[in-house]
Design brief:
Distance between the termini: 57 Å
Helix content: 40-55%
Oligomer: single chain
Order of helices and strands: HEEHHEHHEHEHEEEHH
CATH architecture: 3-Layer(aba) Sandwich
CATH class: Alpha Beta
Largest sheet: 6 strands, mixed
Low-confidence stretches: none
CATH topology: Rossmann fold
Number of helices: 9
Radius of gyration: 21 Å
CATH superfamily: Ethanolamine ammonia-lyase light chain (EutC)
Number of strands: 8
Shape: globular
Mean pLDDT: 92
Strand order of the largest sheet: 3-5-4-6-7-8
Structural class: alpha/beta
Length: about 250
Amino acid sequence: MKHNIPSPSNAENLGRLLESTPARLAVWRAGTRPLTAVWLKFRQDHAGARDAVHGEFGAEFLEAFAAGRGLPVIQSLARDRREFVLSPPSGKRAAPEVVESLARRCPSGLDVQIVISDGLSAAAVEANVPNLLPMLEHGFRQAGISCGLPVVARLARVAIADQLAFALSCRLAINLIGERPGLSSARALSAYLTYNPGPHTISSDRTVVSNIHAGGTPPVEAGAYIVQLARRILEAGASGVRLQQLG
């Protein structure tokens, strides 16, 4: 069967386009079917995305990174990964006794509280946070912004940072969380910044920095930007849509 592979009028520009993005462009077909290499790559990326959604923090991250830095590790109300995936609200909060324990262990009344959540890709956290977190901590010290003890949250979604930062009376919650994986990257991280977080917080109150990974915004570069953004939020007293309205 003849492969339907066209001859582009500007092959050089097409080559540059393909090198600039992991998106599936110019993949062509063999009759009505994808090329074998294209189909196998799709299956590989789809498997990676599924593994990311169902995966959890590994022992190396929890023991070498979290425990090595003395970071508290908590779990949301979700009992297991299945419940976390099928019942999103279960990942948005931690049990009252867990929050009370953190309140006794962590400093309160500071500018920033960082929460590190697996979200829908624990692999994204493991790949990016070890380089991102030190950059944030160093940047906050340089900027004179006080930052509490980061908390690692298992089976957790974005809103859990609002609950924890509110309990610790911090002005700004930053949740570093694994993004929902796509077919171009299963290891992308996002940072959600919320000023004055609490039970009243809604999605439009949050400012997000997304696509943090080696093929997007590198973790160290993202850390420098998040510090600048946090300073702006703290000075403006607003995040999310209200921050955009301030210009």
